[in-house]
Amino acid sequence: MKKVTLIIVLAMLLSVCSVAMAAEKSYTIALITMDSMDQHWLKVKAGAEAAVADLVKEGHDVKLVFDAPATKVDSVVQANMVENQITNKADAILLAPMDAEALVPAIEEVYDAGIPMILIDTLANTKKFHVIYQTDNGAAARLAADELGKLVDGKGEIAIINAQAGSQTTMTRESEFRKEIAEKFPDIKIVGVQYCDGDKQKALNYAEDFMMKNPNLAGFYACNEGSTVGTGNAVDQAGKAGVIKVVGFDFSDEVKDLVSRGVIQATMVQNPWVMGNEGVKAAWKLINGEKVADEEAFVVDTGVTVVTKDNLDEVK
């Protein structure tokens, strides 16, 4: 009888230990963005961190690993970062692919390895991912075109300062803007586009060149935070604030200042915090065998707000 009792006690202890060991399993969620300079990506990171903190409060052993190339032109470096997380056995990967084609092999490798693959902000040319949280960039670009078209009274010359030529997000912002201008404002001429890789100084230099070569320039459209800040600063330094209209993309302390001073007339503000936060929540569901949606490659629109001086104080 004592022997049977001892066996039962040992079995119970082993069961308790097994449960404890299962509860102590640690999870790693990797977040890889295009860079760590723009406030846009830092807000994505903050949203992801908040979601991980909530999981930790619930008693889960989860950590977030954040990585990003030094600049937005290092797509090979970014692909290596993704592959490193596969090697490191990350339980889920969140990625903002800087190049729609170059990141496809790495994305598909993650997916094929059975690791939850969540895209943030930007699509790539593959369906091998589970869900993406992004702005409807086409709709936002059309809003930007409508804003700038009205600001320049539907006529004159405008220029585009874009970020990366290979990014699905920024190319959509450019192509849809062009289409909307052509359809609604036939008397507006787009004199050119330059790609600044999101670098504020490059954007400033390109904007200065456009103003020098096109003395009758009526407006600028800038496609991300870096290009918006650089373009706004160029117009400001040229003493053309309010004369040359600027419509941009994204929001930061610098963008807010330029809008408040009337240098930038409007900016398309996304919800990067939501992208990161919802991305981690989706990762956790997928890690635990739950569905995020009934289909793979599911797109979630996180929304956009047209911000001007009139509603500037409502934006965080």
Structure notes:
The protein is built from ten helices and twelve strands. The protein has two domains: 26-135 and 272-303, 3-Layer(aba) Sandwich (Rossmann fold); 137-269, Rossmann fold. Helix content is 46%, strand content 20%. By secondary structure, it is α/β, with parallel strands linked by helices. The protein has helices spanning 2-23, 39-57, 75-87, 104-112, 137-151, 168-184, 200-213, 225-237, 253-260, 272-287; strands at residues 26-32, 61-67, 92-95, 117-120, 131-134, 156-162, 188-195, 217-222, 245-249, 266-269, 298-301, 305-307. Helix 2 links the parallel strand 1 and strand 2. The radius of gyration is 24 Å and the shape is elongated. Helix 2 (39-57) crosses helix 10 (272-287) and helix 3 packs parallel to helix 4 (104-112).
Largest sheet: 6 strands, parallel
Number of strands: 12
Give the terminus-to-terminus CA distance. Answer: 69 Å
The value of Rg in angstroms is: 24 Å
Approximately what portion of the residues adopt beta-strand conformation? Answer: 15-25%
Order of helices and strands: HEHEHEHEEHEHEHEHEHEHEE
Q: Characterize the quaternary organization of these chains.
A: single chain
CATH homology group of the largest domain: Response regulator
- Overall residue-averaged pLDDT value: 92
Structural class by sheet pairing and helices: alpha/beta
- CATH fold-type name of the largest domain: Rossmann fold
CATH uppermost class of the largest domain? Alpha Beta
